[in-house]
Amino acid sequence: MTTLHLIRESSSQKDFSTYISLVSTNDSIVLLDDGCYNANSHWLTKLNFKNLYVIERHASARAIPLGDNAKSITSDTLVDLICQHNNSITWN
Known about the structure:
Blueprint: E1 3-7, H1 13-22, E2 28-31, H2 42-47, E3 52-55, H3 56-61, E4 71-73, H4 75-84, E5 87-91
Parallel strand pairs: 1-2, 1-5, 2-3, 3-4
């Protein structure tokens, strides 16, 4: 079973400890809204997570450059990802 984790706000170390404990290797993480501020977080970089996505329009609106570990996607791609996963969790 795969889960899509939608992270919508900038997070602290405590938040990332929670995320890390709940994310499995087949899950995906999407950063959107203010969650884009986490794109270059050392917590996500340390994970070296292969299924990390950022809504390009949201990151661009916040002038956030994307690191090598995050893939830029559109809102349409987000809909596709939601359909490809068994569950989704929105982190606010």
